[in-house]
């Protein structure tokens, strides 16, 4: 029998464990990797969930990078009340770090059981799926799957060919575009493109100047250019400002960079 005792913040969760003979570690596969839930770990080791959360928080306080992969915060919604509580999904490495703080004879036994569960699940994920082609339905489904993949690939190739032709026309054409128009051409939001170009060192701002300026290197390579324009200031006087523009050559280069995976 299991009873739950949770405060509104979800950090006071305690469960009565089943008989030890029924004790089974719970792990699950997600996007090709094996995880365990902090709630299941708390129940398995007969600990309050808030205690396990505190241990995870302590690890994250020492190394915040652990929260990027090994401890992923995944809120838990209590079905009966609709209340949302904190919870973590942890990898094998995350569980190993957490379980270092679990001591005692039984704790060692239970840690080994959890590690075996990770091993079994990871082995199963590595096993190639066996397809029974003697079953006509399976064979037909596989053929339809391959056919759909071919169609998708053909569609992608056709789209890329069209896009390359368009970029070739842009590169060959004269004239340049302001950052806003360049973003539209690249199908990006203006601020998104500006952040991208700034983070890659294409453009920058001088202290006290609201206008973006192109780096000399990218002007020299023909990717950017400067153009002066006249505008009326808040004081009613006409003023001259320098505006950075993206050339056709620069658009093609940016398009290639945007589609590159960021490591």
Count every beta strand, where a strand is a DSSP E run of 2 or more residues. 11
| H/E topology pattern | EEHHEEEEHHHEHHEEHEEH
Query: How many discrete domains?
Result: 3
Count of discrete alpha- or pi-helical segments spanning 4 or more residues: 9
Sequence of strands across the biggest β-sheet? 1-2-6-3
Give the end-to-end Cα distance, rounded to a whole number of Å. 48 Å
Which ranges are low-confidence, i.e. pLDDT below 50, for 5 or more consecutive residues? Answer: 1-21
> What is the general shape?
flat
- Arithmetic mean pLDDT: 80
| Helical content band | 40-55%
**Roughly how many Å is the radius of gyration?**
29 Å
**Major beta sheet, specifics?**
4 strands, antiparallel
Global structural class: alpha+beta
Relative strand content: 15-25%
What oligomeric state is this?
single chain
Entry summary:
The chain is an alpha+beta fold and 263 residues long.
Descriptive terms for the model:
263 residues, 17% strand, disordered N terminus, 4-stranded antiparallel sheet, 3-stranded antiparallel sheet, 9 helices, single chain, 11 strands, alpha+beta
Describe this structure in words.
With 263 residues, this protein is of the alpha+beta class. It has 3 domains: 20-126, no CATH class; 132-172; 176-259, no CATH class. It is built from 9 helices and 11 strands. Strands 1-2-6-3 form a 4-stranded antiparallel sheet. It has a 3-stranded antiparallel sheet with strand order 7-11-10. It has a two-stranded antiparallel ribbon with strand order 4-5. The longest helix is centred in the middle third of the chain and has 37 residues, at 136-172. The chain starts with 27 loop residues before the first strand and ends with a helix. Mean pLDDT is 80; it is low at 1-21.
